[in-house]
Model the fold of this input.
Amino acid sequence: MAAEHGALGCLIYSDPKEDGYYVGDVYPQGAWRNEFGVQRGSVVDMPVIPGDPSTPFVGATPGAKRLPLEEIKVLTKIPVLPISYRDALPLLRGLAGPVAPNPWKGALPITYHVGPGPAKVHLKLAFHWDFKPIYDVIAVIRGSVYPDQWIIRGNHHDGWVNGAEDPLSGQAAILRSSLR
Done:
């Protein structure tokens, strides 16, 4: 929507009202995002074309036919960068304009405005459009009571943002079940 309304770029952040100190203790004391945490999701329209957007509806195997970058419809038309709520705070303080409606207000110690304002951002992003292999780890553990019954547990082992913090909850469940 930002691109449709003329934005040249978009910064997004997770407000502590929804994922931070407002709802509970932040990492490392609790599970909620601390002031340095950055949303690690994606703004690609995944429900439209899940998986690799350059190979829609087929596996991204080494020999797969790939769409040229300019033909991939689910990529954003403008650069989008997630930032922490600590980095968002000075930018939000720099916004003027009308006070934001209540559903748009977060938990930062400011009055939320919808702009415009004197806040300025120099957004410079560099992307590498190269391809990297990913790997699956597959193990089979035969049950002692029902050896032919299948139970599939899955998780990704790559870590987005600052190391391996993203997949740890899923990984912990897999490791716990394998210790039984």
